[in-house]
Amino acid sequence: MRFHDYRTDDFYDEVFQPDGQPRPEARLLVETIESLSDGELLLRQSSAEQLLLQMGITFNVYGDNSGTERIFPFDLIPRMVPASEWEWLERGLKQRICALNLFIDDIYHDQHILKDAVIPREVIESAKCLRSQCIGLNPPRGVWCHITGTDLVRDRNGQIYVLEDNLRVPSGVSYVLENRQLMKRTLPRVFEGLSIRPVDDYPSRLLDTLLSLAPDRAASPRVVVLTPGIYNSAYFEHSFLAQQMGVQLVEGRDLVVSPKDEVLMRTTRGFERVDVIYRRIDDDFLDPQAFRPDSLLGVPGLMEAYRKGKVALANAPGNGVADDKVVYAYAPEIIKYYLHEDAIIPNVDTFLCWRAADQQHVLANLDKLVVKAANEAGGYGMLVGPHSTREQQADFAERIKANPRNYIAQPTLGLSRVPTIIDDHPEGRHVDLRPYILYGKEIYVLPGGLTRVALRKGSLVVNSSQGGGSKDTWVVDETKPKEAAA
What we know:
5-stranded mixed beta sheet
C-alpha cells in the first residue's frame, strides 16, 4: 500500500503534514507500511478482522433486526500522539475531572456554586440525571466519578477541544486493550522501533481504583462487575474487564441485600459478602426501591446499603448531573470556581437553546450547526446540520421549541482525520478520541485511549452504532526511531 495519492485536503491529518510528509512521530510507521509488498497490509488487515471474530470482540445494536451482535470494525493504521502533546492533554483531563468531582459533591451538599449564581439554579434542578436520592451522600474518599471517558476532538486548525464528558457508565476501554494486542500481532516490528506507551496495565489499575473504595472493615475486599446481562450493547466489555481483573461478573439477580444492609453474592458455597461493585447499569435501573420500581436489572435495597457505607459503588450514583450537555457548557466556569484556574483544554463553543437569543440563532442556522439532546448518547438525538435534510431540520426546530432546555447546538467542526484502509487504498476519515481517566487515591489517565473513526466518507459521526469503527492510539515518546522494518 502506498500513500503517494493520499490527500489531507483542508483538514488536520493526524499522520501527515499539509505538504504530504509524515509527522515526525509517524515517519517510521509510514515507512514500514510502504515497505510492505503489494497486498501485504490488506492481508494483515484481514488477519486482524479474523482475530476479532475468533476473540468474539463484538457489540450489540439496539433495534437492529438483522442480528444483535456485530464485530467491532477495526482499522490497522493507528492514530499517533506525540508525548509532548499528550502531557498537555493529561494535565487538562486531570484538571477537568478534579473540578467536575468537586462540582458533583457540591451539588449534593451545600450547593455553593448555585448560591453564588455561577450556574443558574434552574439548569441544575431541571437536569434529567439529578438524583434527589443522592442528596447528602458521601461516597468513599469523596469521589463520585471513578471511571470517566472524555471525548476529545481536533478542529481543522489543530486545536483540541473537549466535546463531551462521559461520567455515568463510559464504555469502550476493552477495545483499547484488544486493539493494542491486534497491532502487536500484525505490525510487531513498529513497536520495536518506537517507544509507545503501554496500556496493558489498565485492568490492574482499574482494580486498584476499585479496591481503594472498599469499606475499612474489609480485610480482603471482594469486587464484582454488575452487568445488565448479555443483551447489553457493552456486554463483551463487562465480561472482558471482569476476567482481566480476576473478579466475578454478576447480574442483579446474583446479589441480595441482607437485613444488616450488607450486599451478598449467591455462590455454590452459599452467600458471600461483596464490598465494591463496579456497576455497568444506569442509575434508573440500579435499585427498584430507590429508582425505577419496574427494574428487574438492579438490586433491591442497594442504595440503602451504599448510603450506610456497607458497600461502595463505582461510578457513584447521581454523577450524571455533570454529564448533562447543558451543564457541559459551564465546565470552564466550574473549573474556575473550584480550582481558581482557567480550563487547560477548551470546550467547543456551545449555544444553549433555553436562552432566547441562543435559540433564535440556532433555529436560524440549523443547516450549519450540530444540535444535540442534553442526555442522549451513541450518536442518537443529534442533527448534523450540513448533512441533514429540510425535513430533519424542521423536525428538530419543533423539538427545540417544545423543550428548549433539552437541546444545545455547536458549530460543525472539521474533525481531524487519519488514513484509513478503504477497499485497497488509504483515505482520510474523521476521528475523535476518548481517553479513560481513573480516580481512586489519585487521578490516572490511560495513555492514548479509544480513537473512533467515521468509516463512511465525509461522515462526522464516529459512534459504533452509527457505522463507526476504531483504531489503536499510540502515545509516542520523542526518541530517535530505529530504521523501518516490516
